[in-house]
Amino acid sequence: MTERVPAEPHRRRRAHGSLETQVLAALHEAQGPVTAGWVQKHLAAELAYTTVMTVLTRLLAKNVVTRRREGRSFVWMPVADQAGLAALKMRKVLDGQRDRRAVLASFVTSLPEGDEQLLRELLDQAADED
Predict the structure, then answer these.
(1) What predicted TM-score, i.e. pTM, was given to this entire model?
(2) Which domain holds residue 31?
């Protein structure tokens, strides 16, 4: 009879995009452009340097971060502030839907009254600027 070896506990998978969110949060906390090593040190999770580089490269491909060469490495910075990044995420979700009208209608009708009024004011202001 063979002895049964207990299975290793399964690692819990991160929510989709959570690493990207953590990396972006670290970049926003920085006082300027930073290296991937700096990002790695400032993340709550213990991640390999290669993992941080993979996330940064994916964010670069999505035009969410930018980089420039400094010496032998790159320094990284976010493209937009927190509000701009949230708007980018909302736009990407909307772009992924077939019926934009239905999605927007559902979004607008679920807004609290104060937010609905703010959205109306912002739309009026945008129309005036055109």
Answers:
(1) 0.62
(2) 18-78
